[in-house]
Amino acid sequence: MSYNSARLDGKTALITNSSSGSGRDAAVELARRGADIVINYAKDLSAAQQTVNEINSLGRRAIAVQGDMAKPDDVRVMFLKTMEYYGKLDIVVSNSNADSFKHISEISVTEFDRVFNTNARGQLLVAQQAYKHLSVGGQLVMLTNGAAAKGVRNTSLYSGSNAAVESFAQSLAADMADKRINVTAIAPGGVHIVEGTKKVEQVTSRWSARAVAFAASEEYGWTNGQTLTV
Question: What's the predicted TM-score (pTM) here?
Answer without folding.
Answer: 0.90
